[in-house]
Amino acid sequence: MSHPDHRMNLRPLETPTGVSAVAGPHDIGASPGDKKSKSKSTRGKKKSMFETYMSKEDVSEGLKRGTLIQGILRINPKKFHEAFIPSPDGDRDIFIDGVVARNRALNGDLVVVKLLPEEQWKVVKPESNDKETEGTYESDLPEELCGHHLPQQSLKSCNDSPDVIIEAQFDGSDSEDGHGITQNVLVDGVKKLSVCVSEKGKEDGDAPVTKDETTCISQDTRALPEKSLQRSAKVVYILEKKHSRAATGFLKLLADKNSELFRKYALFSPSDHRVPRIYVPLKDCPHDFVARPKDYANTLFICRIVDWKEDCNFALGQLAKSLGQAGEIEPETEGILTEYGVDFSDFSSEVLECLPQGLPWTIPPEEFSKRRDLRKDCIFTIDPSTARDLDDALSCKPLADGSFEVGVHIADVSYFVPEGSDLDKVAAERATSVYLVQKVVPMLPRLLCEELCSLNPMSDKLTFSVIWTLTPGGKILDEWFGRTVIRSCTKLSYEHAQSMIESPTEKIPATELPPISPEHSSEEVHQAVLNLHGIAKRLRQQRFADGALRLDQLKLAFTLDHETGLPQGCHIYEYRDSNKLVEEFMLLANMAVAHKIHRAFPEQALLRRHPPPQTRMLNDLMEFCDQMGLPVDFSSAGALNKSLTQTFGDDKYSLARKEVLTNMCSRPMQMALYFCSGLLQDPAQFRHYALNVPLYTHFTSPIRRFADVLVHRLLAAALGYRERLDLAPDTLQKQADHCNDRRMASKRVQELSTGLFFAVLVKESGPLESEAMVMGVLNQAFDVLVLRYGVQKRIYCNALALRSHHFQKVGKKPELTLVWEPEDREQEPTQQVITIFSLVEVVLQAEATALKYSAILKRPGALGHPGPEKEEECDDEPED
């Protein structure tokens, strides 16, 4: 790492005597419900704060009988006493109230819960508009629906310019779930970016949490309508600790200087309030910490939880490392990677020994006899300009009968990763490359990622290809799978391909194109791009006609200073025809391979499914859209997609309205998951909701996804290149589960990285002004989509210069009336009505705490900005 670090003594911790009776803030993180459950005093005796976990046998029996329920725990980052697990029947999430009920489980853990008696269920009052009680707190949306654009970086390769645009690498295969190109900056995940951009002070403390919104009380619930009750439960067992048990945060001395604990332990306060406070031994702290604690007030540390006893409301831990100053990009980045369990260490010597040793490496002569030789074909890559790991290439050859031979050529990574080798094991464990704004943590050593496997131009490369004979309308006449050798003739960027698409009859000057192999001309490449574009348009039209769904959301791209690496600016990434071209053929290849391996190995195929939206959340959204007068058809993925292309106005803010509605429609969506076909009995469960296809997999990105490496091996076995995989279905499912976990962690890290850089940008370049559109209205706050930057922020009424504010529902439409204090005593107070789709002016400004920024609503009628009259025009519901 570039910054100095203070290495800690990592000896095992013993449980400190008397921990349960520690002086200080006993009830950190405890909800009112927690406090009620405790006795009035535990002084002088140990009292268990948490219940003892059930035995494995009792848990197994309870799950079989249906008296216990398992699920992934999600903790609300805004109100960390609230947590949820999904309901197995797709109904409203099951509520878990407080730290005590969570029973030491952390966010993301796979837990087993027991339902509480009905009189203890959560009462959701019908007039409440606080919908935070369930849904996607972090971006639990399937990344295929958002379509990942993985940020590529190459600061070192941009020596000719002080600035570098960090754009997103488009992987078309990731658009499978309908979420468009973008990393989901809009989903709630961005509002809970660890210490960086979450508004913990306001969200956890300052923001008023009124018990008249929702409450969990013992009362006679028999008279209440079923819809107003939310099943509540407590955690009785942790099946799998998926949370890393690592956290970044700050060291503090204990409050009671006279206690025995003060002489032995310091208090670690995590930046993420969902993680408990942690006792750490003073012997693990910097040697001068006790004497000079203020010197470390802004130092970011990593701490790992090693134990959490039943009789202690704080966990026990060990300091792992001092990262550096809070607010700086590299320390914060390392903290994010550590918290999410990303292995960013150097590859071991044992792993590196698995790589070809005699460099420069050349393809062995005998390999050519085993493969179809395509080196003379016009094949090229289309990627972000900064991309180094080039997974895929395309070709398009016109045939005499008017049809086309179209090829998707994917790097043959499995050739270089021997099964069972140390390299294979580390790739399986990492499972995915992790893309940050400023760098990539690769799944494989860079020699493979950027050289031997990467389909760099004018170099012989080993590939796995899918080649079709297609009509100009995209109808498949023939299909071939096989191992190949290619020689890419050029490396096009999306910008290059886009300029070719936009200038179909013009010759593009050689100075505006990358080097092209002398065996092929720029005209040949240009025509191939045009032919692919024409076919891709027809494929896309047919996909959506067949019922596919896409939820496009905004994504930020940054301009970084070449010297400092700090963000200089940002813009919304534009998704254009060149992106769509690549996407269509990657989707086509993934679907073709899915059918091929499933036919060959119906019990052993690694596929990817996307379950339909969560029933209760979808029903709630349908009801909301009906109340808002939005004619959205939720009957199928295709119907929803059609609605989203029609249900917004034709004014200049129509895109913003669509973004708001798209965000709402994203919330009920579930994760897309890898799975082994032999472990699901019902083929209907194989379906991919967003793509509306029966079978799907990932084949096109083996350099950065281990699932694709496994699929390559399965395809090789299906084609007779190798023996069948020696993997039992349950073993393959375990690997699939691990890939799911690591992809979600990677997605979280990517979002946090984006949030980190944006927070730095606000600090360095702010305040930033923008128009914003209201996305949600709560009792004492409202959420906005900041149009210029595509980020979502919450604005709190108590942070504004208001005389008063009033929440009501007009019909069932939430409405917040703000009464502004007049700037001049002679003026009358100004009223401002906030409702869904209201257009407002906001200012993003940095706060004193490192990497925190807030959104402040500008007073209506301010000079140069829309006044109340103009704003009222924008409050109209979108036209049909």
From TrEMBL:
Domain spans labelled RNB: 371-721
Question: What are the boundaries of the region Disordered?
Answer: 1-48, 860-880
Superkingdom per UniProt? Eukaryota
Task: Spell out the Basic residues composition-biased ranges.
Answer: 37-47
Ordered alphabetically, the record's keywords are: Cell cycle, Cell division, Cytoplasm, Exonuclease, Hydrolase, Magnesium, Manganese, Metal-binding, Mitosis, Nuclease, RNA-binding
Q: Which InterPro entries match?
A: Dis3_CSD2, DIS3L2, Dis3l2-like_C, NA-bd_OB-fold, RNase_II/R, RNase_II/R_CS, RNR_Ribonuclease, Rrp44_CSD1
| One GO MF term attached to the UniProt entry | 3'-5'-RNA exonuclease activity
Cofactor requirement: Mg(2+); Mn(2+)
**Which amino acids does the record list as binding Mg(2+)?**
383, 392
Q: Which GO terms describe its biological process?
A: cell division; miRNA catabolic process; mitotic sister chromatid separation; negative regulation of cell population proliferation; nuclear-transcribed mRNA catabolic process; polyuridylation-dependent mRNA catabolic process; stem cell population maintenance
The record's section on SUPFAM superfamilies has: Nucleic acid-binding proteins (SSF50249)
Q: Where is the composition biased (Acidic residues)?
A: 870-880
Which cell locations does it reside in?
A: Cytoplasm; Cytoplasm, P-body
List site positions: Important for catalytic activity.
391
Q: What is its EC number?
A: 3.1.13.-
A single GO cellular-component term on record: P-body
Assembly and oligomerization: Interacts with XRN1.
Q: What is known of its domains?
A: Specifically recognizes and binds polyuridylated RNAs via 3 RNA-binding regions (named U-zone 1, U-zone 2 and U-zone 3) that form an open funnel on one face of the catalytic domain, allowing RNA to navigate a path to the active site.
Entry's family note: Belongs to the RNR ribonuclease family. DIS3L2 subfamily.
Recorded hits in HAMAP family, A to Z, give: DIS3L2
Q: What does this protein do?
A: 3'-5'-exoribonuclease that specifically recognizes RNAs polyuridylated at their 3' end and mediates their degradation. Component of an exosome-independent RNA degradation pathway that mediates degradation of both mRNAs and miRNAs that have been polyuridylated by a terminal uridylyltransferase, such as ZCCHC11/TUT4. Mediates degradation of cytoplasmic mRNAs that have been deadenylated and subsequently uridylated at their 3'. Mediates degradation of uridylated pre-let-7 miRNAs, contributing to the maintenance of embryonic stem (ES) cells.
**This chain belongs to which protein, by name?**
DIS3-like exonuclease 2
Q: Which organism is it from?
A: Aotus nancymaae (Ma's night monkey)
What gene is this protein a product of?
DIS3L2
